[in-house]
Design a protein that fits this description.
There is one protein chain. This protein has 184 residues and is mainly alpha-helical. It is built from 6 helices and 4 strands. The mean pLDDT is 93. The chain is globular and about 45 Å long. The strands form 2 sheets. It has a two-stranded antiparallel sheet. A two-stranded antiparallel sheet has the order 3-4. The structure holds iron/sulfur cluster.
């Protein structure tokens, strides 16, 4: 049973997953992992509701498993965020990844779900920006199949706004999975 504050989010996640799977199937792309694993990318997430849902997922795990993930998250932050150096990807595995498997798969945020496929994003008054897919899919050798992230971003913004208003949350967030997990 899904908690009420997360119902809209979970519905949106399902829509994204369905769209992603359909486009991936049209490319005959089946992600089986690769050396350049996307769980080693330095991704930042920007929504309070996704952070809350991820932490909600974390709380469903056994305590000893949570502790292992949190220890990895601390190490991740210590290595990645040095006060004196520019923050850049060190290609460290996300702390939720274990043996190439996401332990928080059902609770992972939007960017984890949408990654991999070539896609486009439209902003008002500007031409759509088309971005490449991951190297594993060899998408450069295939004709582009339209995958527009814009409606997903728009719906996420609405869900986030409602969540912020209900919880009196203000201010921007920009956090990795490791930081999100350590925030609770
Ligand atoms: S949350 Fe899961 S899918 Fe996202 S980067 Fe971490 S291990 Fe990978």
């Amino acid at each position: 049973m899904i908690d009420t504050p997360f119902e809209s989010l979970v519905t949106l996640y399902r829509t994204m997953d369905t769209a992603w799977n359909e486009i991936a199937a049209a490319y005959h792309f089946n992600c089986t992992g690769c050396a350049d694993n996307c769980c080693k990318s330095l991704f930042f997430h920007h929504t309070y509701i996704e952070r809350a849902y991820l932490c909600h997922g974390m709380n469903t795990l056994a305590h000893d498993r949570q502790k292992i993930i949190l220890d990895r998250a601390k190490n991740y932050c210590q290595e990645t965020f040095h006060q004196t150096a520019e923050t850049k990807s060190l290609k460290i595995y996300c702390p939720a990844n274990e043996n190439h498997r996401c332990l928080l798969y059902a609770y992972r945020p939007m960017i984890c779900r949408l990654h991999g496929l070539p896609h486009e994003l439209s902003r008002p008054g500007l031409k759509p920006i088309i971005s490449k897919g991951c190297a594993a899919g060899l998408f450069d050798s295939k004709p582009y199949i339209r995958f527009d992230r814009t409606p997903f971003y728009r719906q996420m913004a609405q869900i986030e706004m409602a969540y912020r208003q209900a919880g009196n949350k203000t201010g921007k967030i920009k956090e990795t999975i490791a930081q999100m997990l350590l925030s609770q």
